[in-house]
Design goal:
mainly alpha, 5 helices, globular, ribonuclease T2 activity, RNase_T2-like_sf, RNA binding, RNase_T2-like, S-RNase
Length: 88
């Protein structure tokens, strides 16, 4: 679970994983076959990128009392030399 943490303060990683699989993993069920394969592939794709650290290095921390703009998130990620993410 440490490989894919929830970025919502107070939300358990397990709840986050369940929601992510329900929203995205089931679409790839024919390919991945099981939730374990889906998350394993996601972790492999994530590789050495620690998004929590990338954001924390720019002062962006999980906090229910503070909000950050999408532009702040993009900037922190792009400053690290990473591609702009898709945010829904």
């Amino acid at each position: 679970m440490n490989d894919w943490p929830s970025l919502n303060a107070g939300e358990s990683d397990f709840d986050f994983w369940s929601e992510e699989y329900s929203r995205y993993g089931k679409c790839g069920l024919d390919y991945f076959r099981t939730p374990d394969r889906y998350f394993t592939r996601a972790i492999i794709e994530n590789g050495a990128i620690d998004i929590t650290k990338v954001l924390a290095d720019k002062g962006i921390l999980a906090d229910n009392d503070r909000t950050y703009s999408v532009q702040q998130l993009f900037q922190a990620i792009e400053d690290r030399g990473l591609n702009r993410p898709q945010i829904e």
